[in-house]
Amino acid sequence: MELQLDPSDARDALAIQQAIDAVAITGGRVMLPAMDIELDRALVLRSGVELIGQGAVSVLRQGPGRVYPLTGYHNYGMADVPLETTEGLAVGMTVSVHDDRTHGGFYETLARITWVDGNWVGLDHGVEADYQAAAHPCLTTVRPMVMGHDLQRAAVRGLRLVGGREFSPKGMGGCRGGAVYFGRCHGLEIEGIEETGYLGEGLSFQMCRDVLIRDCAFDGNSGNGLHPGAGSTNALFVGCSARGNERSGFFFCVRANHITVRDCVFRGNATGVSVGTRDCHNLLESCAVEANQGSGILFRDAPRPTEVHSCRVHRCQVRDNAQAQDQAQVEVQSDAHDIVLSECELHARAGQPALRAAATVRRLFVDGPRHDAATGSIDASPTTLTAAPSVFDCGYGDWPASVYRHLPLA
After folding, report:
1. Are residues 333 and 351 in the same domain?
2. 170 in a domain, yes or no?
3. Which of 220, 242, 275, 279 could form a disulfide with 249 if both were Cys (CB 3.0 to 4.6 A apart)?
């Protein structure tokens, strides 16, 4: 089924959501027109549905956020919350709930309002934590712009997303949300998305597998630009960029494995590319990592048994990073091992090393004539460096079932 919307059909988020839900019955495409609308809720994808815009002329704007304090303590698993006021809230709106202790992680709740009764609102699932009265619990209308949970074979393409961070009193945590956000999904395609200015992450997906991201830009966000996390496995990023984000351009979160990042640009972020806990068997290829405030590529502190290993950086330009921090172009920390940098150009700023590795790093291989005195030195012990690259499989591909067995949709 293909449903072509005209501007009157796509007048607001509710109308678009109704079109998505109608197409989900059989599967198919919802085609958006050239338009410019403000969202009062997230657009929620369904399995078997492609949401397709017309590129930069199909504009979705995040509506102003609002904070609704809870009237007191509320405990885990309850599918309702008590508020000081419910003015402006309506059934179907997407909201987040947290307190000062839980903001930003998986204890934050992302939910849809199912009913409003006096100063109570119902949620489509239970809250994810105990929210303490002394820790300023609240519900906010800060939410993703496009999202999905528990999907198979879904896609979003050809949209411009304006994040509206200047109108948001609180940000959205990157584990539970982002301007574009997916959780526990299988077989996603994200293509031709131009996003900017969200108070949180640009793109976040958690516990997902088999994800294709092509020709997207996530810029000027208060969090990371691109954030595959929480065990997400087998993703391919091609032709994407992240510029001017206040955290990393690309952030591999916990156990983000078998991911390929190819022909991408990460410029002017806090860190260019960050790799950490259990982020293994990943490939960064033919990318430009330039003019970031910290390291161009950072292999974060992750001690055994959850260390980074079996990652390859190939034919990348890593230059003029560490503009505001005393770091190397490439920093390798903690117990990382079996890291290969092949045919890369590492150009350090004056007085900074091109590459620095902790003494506990093992089997780090660096080749190519691209780190001489003019472009920075290598700061690593002889026991860290190896004369030949380790051999391992990495990146996006056709993997056996054992690679996915930690995921709920495996």
Report:
1. yes
2. yes
3. 242
Q: Tell whether 83 and 94 lie within a shared domain.
A: yes
Residue 33 lies in a domain: yes
The total number of structural domains that make up the chain:
2
Taking residues 384-407, report their average pLDDT: 95
Structure tokens at 339: 């890291």
pLDDT in tens, 14-30: 999 999 999 999 999 99
Here the tokens at position 139 are: 């519900």
Tell me if 357 sits within 8 A of 364, measured CB to CB: yes
Residue 299 lies in a domain: yes
CA dihedral of 320, 325, 329, 334, whole degrees rounded to 10: -170
Q: Which residues pair with 27 in a beta bridge?
A: none
Q: What is the 3-state secondary structure (H, E, C) of 273-296?
A: EEECCCCCCCEEECCEEECCCCCC
**Tens-digit pLDDT profile for residues 83-105:** 999 999 999 999 999 999 988 88
Q: What is the pLDDT of residue 139?
A: 97
Q: Which two tokens stand for residue 373?
A: 């005195």
Residues 133 and 179 in one domain: no
Q: What is the pLDDT of residues 304-323, one digit of tens each?
A: 999 999 999 999 999 999 99
Which single residue is written with the structure tokens 């800060």? Answer: 142
Within a domain: 410:
no
Hey, is 188 helix, strand or coil? Answer: strand
Q: Which two tokens stand for residue 277?
A: 């806990």
Determine the 3-state secondary structure of 20 from DSSP: helix
Q: Which domain holds residue 354?
A: 2-62+143-379
CA distance 265 to 267: 6
